[in-house]
Amino acid sequence: MYGNVLSGSVTDLNKDEAFVQIEGITFAMDLSELDEIPEIGDELSGFVYETKGHKNKITTIMPKVMKGIWDYATVKEVRTDLGVFVDSGLKDKDIVVSLDDLPLEHSEWPKKDDRVMVALDIDHKGRLWGKLADLNLYMQLARSASDKEKNRDETGHVIAIRESGTFVLTDSYYLGFIHSNEQDGPLRIGQEVKTRVIGSSHRRLNLSMKPRAYEEITPDAEMIMAVLEHARDKKIPYTDKSDPNDIKEYFGISKGSFKRALGNLMKQNKIEQKDGFTYLK
Questions:
Q1: Local structure of 2: helix, strand or coil
Q2: Domain final residue, candidates 96, 111, 133
Q3: Is 138 within the bounds of a domain?
Q4: Can you tell me the distance from the alpha carbon of 139 to that of 203, in angstroms, rounded to the nearest whole number?
Q5: Residue 135: how many other CB atoms lie within 10 Å
Q6: Looking at the 3D structure of the chain, how many domains does it have?
Q7: What residue numbers bound the domain in which 90 lies?
Q8: Which of 134, 205, 189, 128 is nearest to 157 (CA)?
Q9: Residue 161, domain CATH
Q10: How many DSSP H helices and E strands does the chain contain?
């Protein structure tokens, strides 16, 4: 019965709720959901469920995830002995994705505020669970990828983890794969990742989390950034035209290293040079 949209007759009322009987079971509906107060005997329809306080409720506000309806849900709580609780869209009921539906490694479980795609599942006892989408479903949802997307930035969420790498569904609804060599560290289901497209194969994007060569900040560039961030007015009286001896004395590096670091930062639009000064943008 729980987890379905059903109809029943109003058998009682109080100042806050209408009580609806369905197959001999009474469910409470908040009157605030209705445009007008019903009368005894009126028929009301809604989604029926049991709240986390074990109260039978019926609501006209449909949850985001239902049987056969998949959607992203935000993780609200993680319990290693049970699974992860996700926001169902019901104000007094989070749905549990069972630990049986999650990776064996707890480090690969979603964390609070991650997003996972789930649908509603109902067990033989009538309990509601969140069913995690599998890779086959994502393959049906995903757009067909090509090399036209190469070098584009793509943000997405981790959907499956394998020994060879990680599958991602991008916000543009492309299926992507990040080879383990292209990851910047361990990943988990539901984690948001920022990637770039390095190719395509099997109708999916090949992704990398590593920065483009020009985006990598060298130690010399990091030092210059630190000096600028602490400088008065966020500027220093040194540019690529400065005397090599002055650069060596102040920064402890050669003019060639200094110029390469400046070029690196300018390509990333982090600094600018003007009137004999280098400014932090």
A1: coil
A2: 133
A3: no
A4: 9
A5: 13
A6: 4
A7: 71-133
A8: 189
A9: 2.40.50.140
A10: 4, 18
Q: Output the six-digit token pair for 32.
A: 């605030």
At 10, list the tokens: 């109003």
Do 115 and 156 reside in the same domain of the chain? no
Q: Which residue, 159, 74, 72, 79, is CA-closest to 118?
A: 72
pLDDT digit string, tens, across residues 21-65: 999 999 999 999 999 999 999 999 999 999 988 999 999 999 988
274 within domain boundaries: yes
Q: What is the pTM of this model?
A: 0.71
- Specify whether the backbone of 151 is left (phi greater than 0), alpha (psi in -120 to 50) or beta: left
Q: What separation in angstroms does the CA of 81 have from each of 84, 96, 102, 276?
A: 9, 12, 12, 62
CA nearest neighbour of 10 among 33, 32, 26: 26
Of 199, 207, 82, 122, nearest to 157 by C-alpha is 207
How does pLDDT run across 66-106, given as a tens digit for each residue? 998 999 999 999 999 999 999 988 888 999 999 999 999 99
Nearest to 241 by CA among 223, 259, 257, 254: 259
Amino acid, res. 266: M
SS3 call for 77: strand
